Amino acid sequence: MRLLSRKATCNTHGQDSSYFLGWQEYEKNPYDEIKNPTGIIQMGLAENQLSFDLLESWLANNPDAAGFKKAGQSIFRELALFQDYHGLPEFKKALVEFMAEIRGNKVSFNQNKIVLTAGATSANETLMFCLAEPGEAFLLPTPYYPGFDRDLKWRTGVEIVPIQCTSSNGFQITAPALEEAFQEAQKRNLRVKGVLVTNPSNPLGTTMTRNELNLLLSFVTEKGIHLISDEIYSGTVFSSPGFVSILEVLKDRKCENSQVWNRVHIVYSLSKDLGLPGFRVGAIYSNDDMVVSAATKMSSFGLVSSQTQYLLSALLSDKKFTRNYISENQKRLKQRQKLLVKGFEKAGISCLASNAGLFCWVNMKHLLSSNTFTEEMELWKKIVHEVKLNISPGSSCHCTEPGWFRVCFANISEETLNLAIQRLKSFVESMNNQSHHQTLKSSRRKSLPKWVFRLSFDHDHREPEER
Q1: Matching PANTHER family, A to Z (predicted)?
Q2: Which of 138, 246, 398, 449 would bridge with 229, disulfide CB 3.0–4.6 Å?
Q3: Closest of 126, 97, 130 to residue 111, by C-alpha
Q4: In sequence order, what E strands does 333-464 have?
């Protein structure tokens, strides 16, 4: 008799992906400036630690919120008791206003159409449960966040079919790529229920163009399917072109009374924009009342604590603080991204032009001995074990071209980033020197007379002398 369920014993979680294996190697030997200066530097984690001082300053200036008090009176007992899974109204109001602020108030959100979840991971999985049956499929443009293989598929049984995007146009989505993915799903006898995109993109660090968003809306309208726009990095856009939400394009196209209006859903989180992944605050926004109702019921399996909601409702309601935070955080991200790009350029490594996110999409194709994913993995192993940097190989993101890597820059100090750049620069120089030496050696051998080469070969391979 089987003692454990198939789900418990299956190997479809994705934990054996190089994306997660890199974390495991880091945890065995983590870099510390004092305790372990030769350890592995974590550059595979998309965390935003650049603006903690702003948050800590607000907490220091607002002791009532941090101490769970209202007008000086403790409300700890009230918060400690059971709360409705619909969430605190004041928090939902503050959250939708913050989401509008990030989007330049070009769009507004109705707090009755938002569902709170324990992070974006829970939000995306909940939407899968709401929109698809096991064995049905969602189309995702490549490269995509490696965790989606776990978040979207593992418990739901939903399949992912990649929309193959390439570097020839900066990995933008095209109409032929969308149609090819749809046809591929049909060949596999998979019913396509929708498309999921991240905007801004993880791992590209780029915002989607209006042309792409219009293309997606036309595609899902024609096919009669859903569109999920994961917009958890919307507040990290630090350069032009600015961020355009799918909701803005819906309104520009006057889709309010059309069927597609109810088939577009937005995922949001405070993990990236505010740098609070440990607070586990995510959200689903949908115009479909049935989706909102079903997702709200499902959210009882992953609620946001009342204490967290109360604290963040006070913080997000402070409009002066949020406006300053958004602006200052974006400036810091821009400076840090510029530092990484310039440092890598000095090492002879280029990055995809980006304007958002906590990472760069880095091109190391020229460091591969052959244009294969096997060689990409060999290079990645050297970078992890010899250079002592944990970065994410493109194959873990389902990239179609070997040699691309995601490198995070916002989860470490500037000093640590400079050290990482220096380590990588030294590694590239050593590879170039080794390659140059091998070329010279090969060239010298080719230029020598055949008899010299023969003597040398015979000498190198003769039997050892008896002693």
Answers
A1: 1-AMINOCYCLOPROPANE-1-CARBOXYLATE SYNTHASE 9, BIFUNCTIONAL ASPARTATE AMINOTRANSFERASE AND GLUTAMATE/ASPARTATE-PREPHENATE AMINOTRANSFERASE-RELATED
A2: 246
A3: 97
A4: 350-351, 359-363, 389-390, 392-393, 404-408
For residues 411 and 42, the answer to whether their CB atoms sit within 8 Å is yes
Question: CA 163 from chain center: how many Å?
Answer: 17
CB within 8 Å of 218: residues ≥ 6 apart = none
Rounded CA separation 12/266 (Å): 26
Q: Mind telling me the catalytic residues?
A: 145, 230, 232, 272
Q: How far is CA 259 from CA 38, 217, 222, 248, in A?
A: 57, 11, 11, 17
- Other CB atoms closer than 10 Å to residue 377's CB: what's the count? 15
Asked if residue 176 has a cis previous peptide bond (ω within 30° of 0), the answer is no
List, in sequence order, every beta strand (DSSP E) within 207-261.
226-230
pLDDT at 436: 52
Residue entry with tokens 């350029």: 345
- Which pLDDT does position 457 carry in this prediction? 33
Q: What is the mean pLDDT of each run of 10 residues along the chain (467 residues)?
A: 78 74 89 95 94 94 88 82 84 96 93 96 96 96 94 93 96 97 97 98 96 97 97 96 95 91 96 91 96 94 90 95 96 97 95 96 95 95 95 95 97 96 94 63 46 35 34
- With contact defined as beta carbons under 8 Å apart, do 313 and 222 qualify? no
Q: For residues 294 and 129, what is the distance between their CA atoms, to the nearest angstrom?
A: 9
Helix H, strand E, coil C: the string for 10-62 is: CCCCCCCCHHHHHHHHHHHCECECCCECCCEEECCCCCCCCCHHHHHHHHHHC
| C-alpha closest to that of 148 among 397, 390, 358 | 397
Neighbours of 218 (CB within 10 A): 14
What six digits make up the tokens of 430?
A: 């050593």
- Classify domain 6-52+330-431 at the CATH superfamily level: Aspartate Aminotransferase, domain 1 (3.90.1150.10)
What backbone phi and psi angles, to 5 degrees, belong to 57? -65, -40
The structural domains of the chain, with segments of one domain joined by +, span: 6-52+330-431, 63-322
Asked whether 275 and 232 are in contact (CB, 8 A), the reply is no
210-223 and 175-187 helices cross at what angle (nearest 10)? 30
Give the Cβ contact number of residue 262 at 10 Å: 15
Q: How far is CA 435 from the centre of its chain?
A: 34
Tokens of 266: 């937005």
Fold designation for 63-322: Aspartate Aminotransferase; domain 2 (3.40.640)
For the four alpha carbons of 242, 243, 247 and 250, in that order, the dihedral sign comes to positive
In contact, 397 and 49? CB cutoff 8 Å:
no
Q: And the tokens for 198?
A: 């991240």
